[in-house]
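Notebook entry, structure prediction.
Reason for the run: the old model in the group folder had no record of what sequence produced it. Starting over properly, with the input documented here first.
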Amino acid sequence: DSLLQEVAMSCHKALRTFDVLENIFSFLELESLDNVCKTCSIWSESVVQSLMWKKLAYRFASQTKQDFTILSQKGLNLNFEDNIEEESDHFEKLCRSFSNFKTNWKSIEPKETFLCCAPVDVNKNFGYEWSPWWQWKNQGGWIASFTFDEKYLLCGVIETLQVWDLDSSECVSIFETPRDDIIAGVDIALNCLDLLGDIAVSGSNEGIIRVWDIKTGKYCKRLECSEYGAVDALKLFQNFLLSGHDDGQLIIWLVKSPHEVILVSTLVHHTDILWGLDISTRFVVSCSEDKSVAVYLHSDIFPEISKSDRNLSINNKENLSVPGHLSSRLVGHTAAVTFVSVECDLVVSGSRDRTVRVWQLDTSGYTVIRVLVGHTELVHYVAQDQDRIYSSDDNGELLVWDKRKVVDRGEHGEDDGDYLVKRFDYGERGAIDCIKIMGTKVYTSYDDFGNIAINDFW
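New structure, fully documented this time:
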């Protein structure tokens, strides 16, 4: 170290001046910044005093939305009240852990925790007196679906919605369907739900969509769709709600408030049950029992709501006409397509034919990038983030695929083992019905397990 100090002191004075060093070090990546810290105490102290690790963390966070989510989740915005050494140490650890996550995800053993959603657990842990009105209420609390935003997780248990605070992992509200609103003699179980801002929606086997206000906890609106059979898929997007139904309909609704929801159009481009919906910045996709995936452009199914239409109501909705054109139909699966995910122009679909297909969209059509084979039972659910594709099946297996390799190699890749990153077997919990990704955490729910599992790969 004394030799390094001597070398450093013999350097030009500029290389011992903090503001000059800060400017130079601001261009360095993690490994080079690490080497700087080992060179001499002057440079190491410059890194601390200039908060170079913090600046590197913010550079990492600016790369993609997912990287920002990961780093925010792990302490990007912590306040250290002018304790520079503690702050530098925190951000150095954050940068190193982030680099390890990005580089070594495959070898990281996740830490698993649970949100215990069954009636007995919620009542015991949070002081509720919730008794589900359902014939299977003593079987632990089947989770139909769940979703989340940055603050809340919305979970459908039996016929009831639960709202969980993500920071505290506490169940903060339970939304029970009013008994006088339930159709007697019909299976009332929830199939689907979604959450956007203060609005929560749920769809049931009755063919009813119910709209709730998260802030007040009030049941606000009932949308009657029973003529089309069960409601199997829901998606909130900007001012719109999309719903998918047993008879194959895709219905577009304008959501002016939790109390006012206006039917815009009904599209029929599937000949059987519409099982899943997803939306990217450009496309809307739906999948069906008819073995296909339908693709729409936003401009073809969403009307433009101008300022002059603020007073739009159910009585003057003629201004909401849309072309309703089908942009593409993705065909290739040999059995029902059970779920679909879209990010940018990349579509991932899962099917009862036990395969996962990856498709590339453009305005003129589509390309099949890869058919992923690895499941031994029908695929229940698919999801994707910027680096990985996730798929689950009826056996309770979760398969994780390398998305970048799939996209880069496409049809020219080798065996599917090249793409498979991890395989998890949760068979004792039942089929995996839902997968959601938030930062470093993978959330899953199951057929026979009244908990949502959270696996953190940090």
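Summary: The chain has a mean pLDDT of 89.
The old model has been moved to the deprecated folder.
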